[in-house]
User: Fold this.
Amino acid sequence: MSAQTNSQASIQTSDKPLGREQLAELVARDIAPGSFVNLGIGQPTLVSNYLKPEQNITLHTENGMLGMGPEAEGDDIDGDLINAGKIPVTELPGASYFHHADSFAIMRGGHLDICVLGAFQVSATGDLANWHTGAPDAIPAVGGAMDLATGAKDVFVMMTLLTRDGASKIVEACTYPLTGVGCVTRVYTDKAVFLTGPDGVTVRETFGCTFEELQELVPVPLKAAAAVVG
Amino acid sequence: MSAQTNSQASIQTSDKPLGREQLAELVARDIAPGSFVNLGIGQPTLVSNYLKPEQNITLHTENGMLGMGPEAEGDDIDGDLINAGKIPVTELPGASYFHHADSFAIMRGGHLDICVLGAFQVSATGDLANWHTGAPDAIPAVGGAMDLATGAKDVFVMMTLLTRDGASKIVEACTYPLTGVGCVTRVYTDKAVFLTGPDGVTVRETFGCTFEELQELVPVPLKAAAAVVG
Amino acid sequence: MLTFVDSVNEAVSGIKDGSTVMIGGFGNAGQPFELIDALMACGAKDLTVVNNNAGQGDQGLALLIKEGRVKKMICSFPRQSDSWHFDAKFHAGEIELELVPQGNLAERIRAAGAGIGGFFTPTGYGTMLAEGKETRIIDGRGQVFEMPIHADVALIKALKADGVGNLVYRKTARNFGPIMAAAAKHTVVQVSEIVPTGGLDPENIVTPGIYVNSIVKVA
Amino acid sequence: MLTFVDSVNEAVSGIKDGSTVMIGGFGNAGQPFELIDALMACGAKDLTVVNNNAGQGDQGLALLIKEGRVKKMICSFPRQSDSWHFDAKFHAGEIELELVPQGNLAERIRAAGAGIGGFFTPTGYGTMLAEGKETRIIDGRGQVFEMPIHADVALIKALKADGVGNLVYRKTARNFGPIMAAAAKHTVVQVSEIVPTGGLDPENIVTPGIYVNSIVKVA
Assistant:
């Protein structure tokens, strides 16, 4: 019991919850050197600001490019060079262009090391819901979300842990329509980093709360990361 | 009956059976201007010698090229530029190269107007047997034959009508292993040109024999081409 | 048979009421704006349109939808901040939507061009977009059966064409062009430049001329 | 992870007994002769080899077969005038043959790289090569179900690589290279030239570096 208490204490790595930028910086730091990565639209795009040149990360955009550079500004803006969010971007040395089927073959064939996505909900077994609120009058739009969720070797989710109403977005089973089944491997939130998989949810670290406080917020049983326990 | 006799007489367009070169010339003449064509290994390759520049025919080779030119000679021989028969060829202006899946997509997707193939047998309904003798000790080798037979809009066969033993290669049902089912649309032989399809076998023209003499040789009911009857 | 035509109106003249029309482009990149305008002008209706989106703002595909000329959209991302014409038609029940994950859209278009009768993919398995579709477990993964998407006509944009219809594209404007060109019975291409045959390197052709039927140069 | 290695022997060191190895090339064009020689030298046995043919003459793949290192061949055209080593092993019942129509071979390799679980194709329907396989009628055509072909290692030849592993090929030597690179867990490429990153036009890359693991320059 005291060992567990120790473990719970030791995984709190920050006194405060992380902000969006801090979270992006953390995700960037966790991406292994040499990885091929797709950053989803919205919050995941922030990660690119914190990737270091020595990490040698190659960014993929599903509209047909590897080796995507930063957002284009001023004279560099070229209407033929955009990312999946339709924002003008730049091309890095070593870039390549390909058509949509070849681009999605990269995703679907399991060649991307990591994709980073936003989410409405993630289940205890890694199911992802991030494309559709399920509201009867909502016009559904899926884009490449299901291909990324299903195809990448690792699917990282970035989100706040709680909804505006204070409900946990990590849930026993998703109530929103699914994007993919059992696909999420890691969840980065303002309050903790979770590892998800067939064995359930493991907490790697917490921010501004203890393991026990976190467990109070999340309606699925949590484990503390074994590596940190020792 | 006399109308039929007339028709039978009128479709004899040559006093003698055609030789291999004459047959190749006839096939070449029958290919519509602007067509995309794949010529199989062996006798069909001869057709390329009789294509006229004004026909504007584009040749495809399944190992990854459109716009193939004549066989290469002397200094033009380049080990990286070969046809499906592994013979050095040349490149014409407007040529393009692509990988094997893209090349077979051209064939399998129905984009070739015509392929010309050799055959062991063709059935009354256009089944093709041209890849395997079926002998128990034979090592089977199929290459692209099934893809061509199944994919091209029109499949022309070039062969002698009779085997060395005098048996018709146009048969009620193939006894050799099939390459494709109901795929052959036209058969060019030394003794006649046949149109094949779901409605049976129609004789377009005969060489060195009458319709009746031809029917004696071929064990399936023949019709004379309606267009020639008039 | 390849023809070079003088006007976009002539280029789209083969599009009839009830045609299935693929339209290239992702965002504005690769969108054949002038051909879409010509499609608007030609009057064809009851169209099934295949595009990644369902029109934006008050132009192009959005206008075609507004005017009630599109019976059905096959797309992956119809909802955008300025997709008000589609939104209105959809809520009024006046347009049919087949929503397809973007990778399935691309692969189904590719399958049509490559003569594939259908394929299994993990994308969409276990989601509402697989409802009513055949599924099976292959190598331990749930997979969904998807069918090819064929079209009567494709309208696409390329950078250059040569005299035999070989095409090259520019940057991410390539997107759906090459696969739509192969999937349609009749492919219409607007290009910025026409070069003599032999003017494009055979190693760098992205769409071979066999897939191209009509080319029009747009200034 | 991409590495540039100094020798072909080092390049093939990941090949183990029982590996499935794809070997590029059609005829001599695109054949990675030096990598095949290194595979011969490394001693790995019980191999499954995927190649269009089954070796010719007394070199390369033919030697590997002669030495009994190949348990199974997956190919479209094993019988050639000089395929005597394969012929002998086959007649002695010492090698297994999976004969695949060439287009199915290419499409199955492509499917592996693209994450397709299987597909239906008209090629082979009604023939002995469809015996025992699932079939169905789609749009009035008989079709056969074919599964992807994955590999542990691909050995291919390209013309040039840049510093991030992007590849370009030369003429019909391109053939199986791009699809095998995508279908294997580990892709080894022999190239004639290595150019600095940025030295290949992004529009003209045929195999993006994401598919490449080891590059060796062969004089």
Chain A is about 20% helix and 30% strand. Confidence is low (pLDDT under 50) at residues 1-9 of chain A.
